């Protein structure tokens, strides 16, 4: 996006010549005239990010940009050939400084028959493109059949090559060959808040994909419609494969939702979300709650912290989204928007109303913008594919 300047007497932007001025009717000072591009350029960039994330534009959904940032870049069906894949992103929506770690999702029309490369154009680099090897998560070349037809897969740029996020077929087969057969895929969902033990089923040597969310923080309460509490932060997210032993008992904990901050004459802060853990392998901390407001906007939203993993693992640790603070709307305020957990949208706005709870799993609750409670955070979750 380029910088804009006030319009001169000829209706053209006057770069660096005219300062921006506020009009003061009482003294006759005339304010600056902004050109339409100051609005349309910003709109075009926001819409480009929404389009690139695979969403359909909506005039009523005010959280599409947040969802686009959290979602990464959805490429759809990749072009090119089976072993030399390609895609183009419209309008250069990936900043060059943020390319490392950006999550791309796509699918192929033809299964690969050898190691693969990936070329992407439309990114914010001087060359406008990157072409490099597409490798396994551990940095090895893909084997024939590692990219099945019409199955979505995720990969990221590490600065030198593109790497798969989850295990590919060849890795899974190698890890469980000692069983003599590949068991049918199963999924176990651990959702009850609290602690427990999960026994690894017979014949299972690899948990192919484990997804974990910590608990989201609660939104802060408020004392009136002239107050706006801050939102709760998001629980941490981790995703990856974990080698295990059949019959192994793995202790786990599901993090609780952060409590909603109370409204009233003495409003309270939102509560923290609980930590989700899976043995000594992975810990996903819960987030802190947003602060309450007793007049005006409280500028202190809840904060999250990233997941941690044992040294033997190389899973994906998601970046932490920021929680919002209140904002003016008409004669009142909107409550701070709860921070979405990775892969989850936020709850949408609440104006001069109590906070909306965070979306499950792991998202933070909205702050209140009335004499009412904030929104509770969402509890954590573990999903195991093996």
Describe this structure in words.
- The protein has two domains: 72-171, no CATH class; 180-386, no CATH class.
- The protein contains three helices and 22 strands.
- The chain has helices at residues 37-52, 64-71, 169-176, and strands spanning 73-77, 79-80, 84-88, 103-107, 116-121, 129-135, 153-157, 162-164, 187-190, 194-199, 206-213, 227-228, 237-243, 249-254, 276-278, 282-284, 296-297, 308-309, 316-317, 327-329, 332-334, 381-385.
- The strands form five sheets. It has an eight-stranded mixed sheet with strand order 1-4-7-8-6-5-3-2. A five-stranded antiparallel sheet has the order 9-22-11-13-19.
- Residues 177-182 have low confidence and may be disordered.
Topology diagram in text:
Layout: H1 37-52, H2 64-71, E1 73-77, E2 79-80, E3 84-88, E4 103-107, E5 116-121, E6 129-135, E7 153-157, E8 162-164, H3 169-176, E9 187-190, E10 194-199, E11 206-213, E12 227-228, E13 237-243, E14 249-254, E15 276-278, E16 282-284, E17 296-297, E18 308-309, E19 316-317, E20 327-329, E21 332-334, E22 381-385
Parallel strand pairs: 1-4, 3-5, 6-8, 12-17
Antiparallel strand pairs: 2-3, 4-7, 5-6, 7-8, 9-22, 10-14, 11-13, 11-22, 13-19, 14-15, 15-16, 16-18, 20-21
């Amino acid at each position: 996006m380029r910088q804009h300047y006030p319009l001169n007497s000829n209706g053209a932007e006057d770069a660096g010549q005219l300062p921006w001025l506020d009009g003061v009717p009482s003294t006759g000072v005339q304010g600056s005239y902004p050109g339409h591009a100051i609005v349309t350029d910003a709109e075009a960039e926001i819409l480009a990010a929404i389009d690139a994330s695979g969403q359909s534009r909506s005039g009523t959904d005010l959280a599409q940009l947040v969802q686009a940032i959290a979602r990464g870049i959805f490429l759809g069906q990749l072009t090119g050939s089976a072993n030399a894949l390609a895609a183009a992103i419209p309008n250069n929506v990936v900043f060059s400084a943020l390319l490392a770690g950006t999550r791309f999702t796509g699918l192929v029309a033809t299964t690969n028959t050898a190691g693969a490369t990936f070329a992407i154009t439309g990114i914010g680099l001087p060359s406008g493109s990157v072409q490099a090897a597409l490798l396994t998560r551990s940095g090895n070349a893909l084997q024939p059949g590692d990219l099945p037809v019409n199955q979505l897969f995720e990969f990221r740029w590490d600065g030198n090559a593109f790497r798969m996020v989850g295990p590919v077929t060849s890795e899974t087969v190698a890890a469980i060959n000692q069983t003599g057969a590949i068991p049918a895929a199963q999924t176990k969902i651990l959702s009850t808040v609290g602690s427990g033990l999960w026994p690894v089923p017979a014949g299972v040597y690899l948990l192919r994909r484990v997804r974990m969310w910590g608990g989201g923080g609660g939104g802060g309460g408020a004392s009136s419609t002239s107050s706006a509490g801050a939102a709760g932060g998001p629980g941490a997210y981790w995703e990856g494969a974990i080698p295990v032993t059949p019959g192994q008992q793995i202790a786990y904990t599901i993090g609780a939702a952060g409590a909603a901050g109370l409204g009233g004459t003495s409003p309270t802060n939102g509560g923290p979300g609980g930590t989700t853990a899976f043995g000594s392998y992975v810990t996903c901390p819960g987030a802190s709650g947003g602060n309450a407001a007793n007049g005006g906007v409280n500028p202190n939203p809840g904060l999250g912290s990233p997941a941690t993993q044992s040294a033997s693992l190389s899973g994906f640790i998601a970046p932490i989204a920021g929680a919002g603070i209140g904002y003016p709307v008409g004669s009142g305020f909107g409550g701070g928007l709860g921070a979405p957990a990775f892969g989850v949208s936020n709850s949408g706005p609440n104006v001069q109303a109590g906070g909306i709870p965070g979306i499950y799993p792991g998202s933070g609750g909205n702050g209140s913008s009335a004499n009412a409670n904030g929104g509770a955070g969402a509890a954590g979750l573990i999903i195991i594919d093996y």
